[in-house]
Design a protein that fits this description.
The protein has seven helices and ten strands. By secondary structure, the protein is of the alpha/beta class. It binds adenosine-5'-diphosphate. Adenosine-5'-diphosphate (ADP) is lined by residues 11, 13-16, 20, 38, 40-46. Belongs to the ABC transporter superfamily.
Amino acid sequence: MFRLHDVSYTYADSRTGGAALSHVSAEVAQGEFRWLLGPSGAGKSSLLSILSLEVQATSGMVEILGMPVMHARRAALARLRRRIGAVRQDFRLLPDMNVFDNVALPLRLQHRAEAEIRHEVHAIMKWVGLENRLDALPPQLSGGEQQRVAIARAVIYRPDLLVADEPTNALDERQAARLITMFHRLAEMGTTIVVATHNDAIVRRYPAQAIELAHGHMVRDYNG
Ligand code: ADP
């Protein structure tokens, strides 16, 4: 779960001179699925960066998986980060490593046995329909394929919190629907999930609670 109370965030090199997030408060329980909605520039990516511990809020209270992160020690934050999966808009795959090794990375960081890693990677890559591309390098893949690899890497160790930034934007309609169904299944198994999207059609098709931002402010926190 996570709790945000009165959270504001300003980039050091703010392009607009204003805050990317202003006084945002939200509370999401373990195993809930939330949409994060709002037009481009509303603050969605910034909010996801705070939730994935990539940046620290400028002010306010942030509690993630029971830990207040504002004054947490680095080692504690590093441990917490390992329980969070993130799918970023630019995928952040390592271009010189093949698909297998990219997806295996979180498990290798957990020092899992190589046989187990092989089993898990094959299972998740089959699920995303890319079991035949394990030897490819990310630059050899289409945008949609890279997005599916990034999703596989984010969910392979069953994180307690999963944040995804426009995870369907490079997918076709069928793949997008399949992904959201999978996210709902993960939520039922206890993962808290926040998905930022512009895709109104998919939000209508999979109604769920949503946090809606505009100009860095929370417009509403509602049941879709
Ligand atoms: P969204 O994901 O909803 O499109 P963002 O969180 O990316 O919104 O952006 C919120 C605001 O922060 C915008 O005004 C944007 O220009 C600004 N911003 C985003 N990233 C940066 C950055 N790296 N440096 C400076 N300003 C940024």
